[in-house]
Design brief:
Elements: E1 5-15, E2 19-20, E3 23-24, H1 25-35, E4 41-45, E5 48-50, E6 56-58, E7 69-76, H2 78-92, E8 96-104, E9 118-120, E10 123-133, E11 137-138, E12 141-142, H3 143-153, E13 159-163, E14 166-168, E15 174-176, E16 187-194, H4 196-209, E17 214-222, E18 226-228
Helix pairs in contact: 1-2, 3-4
Amino acid sequence: MLNTGPAKKVTAYVGEDVRHRGEPLYLAVLNYLFYHGISGATVTKGVAGFGADRRMHTARILEASENLPIKIEFIESPETLERVLPKLMQMLGDGLVEIQDTTILKAASVEPAEPLPRATLRGQATLMRILIGEDDRWRDKRLYEALVESLRANDIAGVTVYRGILGYDANRRHAKTTRAGLSADRPIMLSVIDEDAKIRAVLPRLETMIEDGLVVLSAVDVVKYTHRLQPGAHSAEHA
């Protein structure tokens, strides 16, 4: 964490297309700074410029430009900078690096975040599986997306959507994924686990949304389910 007083401002210039171990160099540098305790860093992208190679680079409308200039900038204490600078210089290679003396008049203060309360679900619960087709729709959107939104709006603990690669339905229509990635209405399964009362409370709404499909309920034992509640949410433990 930065304090007021003397500090160093570091600015590095690299090309957008320059890579480091398979990823863009500016992302690699940003990750390095983040995981080595640097207080903060900013990456900005230029719209035009030229470097030591004397080649002009510009971003033109409807035309992707190559290797636009990227600027990485951060401010840190001299002690911390001394620790990270050797590796940083090695990563930047031919890039331009500038270091200036600066003074921090006011340091950003970050309030330590209080741990969020946990919500838990244990013991008896209900598993609901919904089987529909990928092309099924409800109003103006895909049915499985609408179902996820409806379940979330009704405070269901969570839902996972699975896309099948092979199957057939009650009409014995065959569906599969082709080599080209095209689909003939592939099967979709939504898996939902929550309290039995909450699951059954949403069933009437689901029945109005699902015209062709299968909904099954199974009793399950939850061994462990826990997550952090968002601020303002109510925590409830289920024995």
